[in-house]
Specification:
nine-stranded antiparallel sheet; globular; mainly beta; Lipocalin
Length: 138
């Protein structure tokens, strides 16, 4: 389990080294963080799944969004990596929109509800943006 945590940390640091800097690209801090926002759409709460294309092999991921309490909590689990978990340090929920990022911005997602059972948006792995759709876990 420690090896998995170490590998996940190493991946995060490696992606951070590729952190974007140019205009129009995501920054290490989620835009709009700390600004007044709409109340979170309660339909965001729950467990969501996707498969992230990494360039090496597809990675199934599980996302748990909890809206209770003062701040939204988002935890990512990688089932194929021994259940390794990432609790995001940067989280923004604004109505039906959601964004989250690792502390160094190496992995970032911004999207919005698309109907009742999908969150569609863009994920950045370092500098590389790609479309990503989360579906509600059944």
């Amino acid at each position: 389990m420690r090896l998995i945590a170490f590998c996940l940390a190493a991946l995060t640091l490696a992606l951070a080294a590729c952190s974007p800097a140019g205009p129009g690209e995501p920054m290490a801090v989620l835009p709009g963080t700390g600004e007044p926002a709409e109340a979170p759409d309660p339909r965001l709460e729950g467990v969501w799944v996707t498969v992230l294309e990494t360039g090496v092999e597809p990675r199934p991921l599980r996302l748990a969004i909890t809206l209770q309490g003062e701040a939204a909590q988002i935890v990512l689990t990688a089932p194929d990596q021994g259940g390794a978990q990432v609790r995001f340090e940067q989280v923004r929920v604004d109505g039906p929109r959601v964004g989250f990022a690792t502390g160094l911005g190496a992995l970032m997602f911004e999207g919005a509800l698309d109907g009742e059972d999908a969150i569609a948006g863009t994920v950045w792995q370092g500098r590389a943006p790609s479309d990503l759709v989360w579906t509600r876990a059944m």
